[in-house]
């Protein structure tokens, strides 16, 4: 087996991000999992990843903070000597119809989801450029493509990620850095647990597969984009949405 690869996953200790970390660990990656605040189950996660024969390194940072992202990338580069794959997964929602949406709720979502994606990428890219190799996978959302009432902030951030992905793909292709996005539909995580049964029923009606997706069904697509079976794909958005769009 060749040298192990290294993946940095933002928001990597919960939900979809944790599942991406586990899936990549099972497939030859050492893991740098970013978190904002420590949680109790991180010890258990570390054990699970080490059982897969991979290294697990936790790194604290608020992705909305530019300097904190610089430190995070430098820490991971120092620890592993490289970052082969960056997964920009950290994200939040602060839903509300525009009439009631506060300015700070709009800005907070843009700051974490879109500016956060820029902040981490900005610091990771010089290392990838120098190595003439790298993958960046940004987690967008179907609502960034189709829109959703009550989520102007979130949809704008996720649509922004798509524009960012396509532009960066063109900028860095000559250095053998591939940049793609994944747009999940409704995935069963903490983010969607808060929805009422009524809202969930309404959502199922829009999904041809008539169910929510699992975090692992997203993680497997990220693994594809991080691996050796996708070497001629860049600037794309892969929908993982049960046929919604
Ligand atoms: P989650 O709420 O379970 O996890 C989000 C993760 O991001 C957490 O680990 C959280 O600590 C981290 N995070 C939040 N703000 C942060 C910050 N400022 N700095 C560092 N980390 C921060 O949510 P879930 O569902 O796992 O979402 C992961 C990604 O997938 C997000 O970008 C979300 O927008 C996206 N997504 C989720 C969908 C769903 O149905 N669950 C659908 C489409 C996209």
**Number of helical regions:** 9
Over all CA atoms, what is the radius of gyration? 17 Å
The CATH topology is what? Rossmann fold
Provide the spatial order of strands within the biggest beta sheet: 3-2-1-4-5-6-7
The small-molecule ligands in this entry are: 1,4-dihydronicotinamide adenine dinucleotide
Low-confidence segments, ≥5 residues, pLDDT <50?
none
Counting DSSP E segments of at least 2 residues, the number of strands comes to 7
Approximately how much beta-strand content do the residues carry?
Answer: 15-25%
Helix and strand succession? EHEHEHEHEHHEHHHE
Provide the domain count: 1
Q: In terms of structural class, how would the helical and strand content be classed?
A: alpha/beta
The backbone outline, from C-alpha atoms, is globular
Helix content: 40-55%
Return the average pLDDT rounded to an integer.
97
Distance between the termini: 39 Å
Q: Architecture, according to CATH?
A: 3-Layer(aba) Sandwich
CATH superfamily: NAD(P)-binding Rossmann-like Domain
Briefly, what CATH class? Alpha Beta
Task: Explain how this protein is built.
The chain has 245 residues and is an alpha/beta fold. It has one domain: NAD(P)-binding Rossmann-like Domain (Rossmann fold). The protein has nine helices and seven strands, in the order βαβαβαβαβααβαααβ. The protein has a seven-stranded parallel sheet, sandwiched between helices. The site of 1,4-dihydronicotinamide adenine dinucleotide has 26 residues, from helix 1 and helix 7. 1,4-dihydronicotinamide adenine dinucleotide (NAI) binds next to helix 1 and helix 7.
């Amino acid at each position: 087996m060749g040298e192990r690869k290294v993946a940095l996953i933002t928001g990597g200790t919960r939900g979809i991000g944790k599942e991406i970390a586990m899936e990549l660990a099972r497939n030859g990656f050492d893991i740098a999992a970013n978190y904002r605040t420590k949680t109790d189950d991180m010890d258990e996660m570390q054990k699970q990843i080490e059982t897969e024969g991979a290294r697990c390194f936790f790194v604290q940072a608020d992705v909305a903070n530019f300097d904190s992202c610089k430190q995070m990338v430098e820490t991971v580069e120092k620890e592993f000597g490289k970052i082969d794959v960056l997964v920009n997964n950290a994200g939040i929602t602060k839903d509300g119809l525009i009439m009631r949406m506060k300015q700070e709720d709009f800005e907070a979502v843009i700051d974490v989801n879109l500016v956060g994606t820029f902040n981490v990428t900005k610091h990771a890219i010089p290392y990838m450029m120098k190595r003439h190799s790298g993958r960046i996978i940004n987690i967008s959302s179907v609502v960034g493509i189709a829109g959703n009432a009550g989520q102007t902030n979130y949809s704008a951030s996720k649509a922004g990620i798509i524009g960012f992905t396509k532009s960066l793909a063109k900028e860095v292709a000559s250095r053998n850095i591939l940049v793609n996005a994944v747009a999940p539909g409704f995935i069963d995580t903490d983010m969607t647990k808060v929805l009422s049964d009524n809202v969930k029923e309404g959502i199922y009606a829009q999904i041809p597969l008539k169910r929510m997706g699992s975090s692992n069904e997203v993680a497997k697509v990220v693994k594809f984009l991080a691996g050796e079976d996708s070497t001629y794909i860049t600037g794309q958005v892969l929908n993982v949405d049960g046929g919604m769009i």
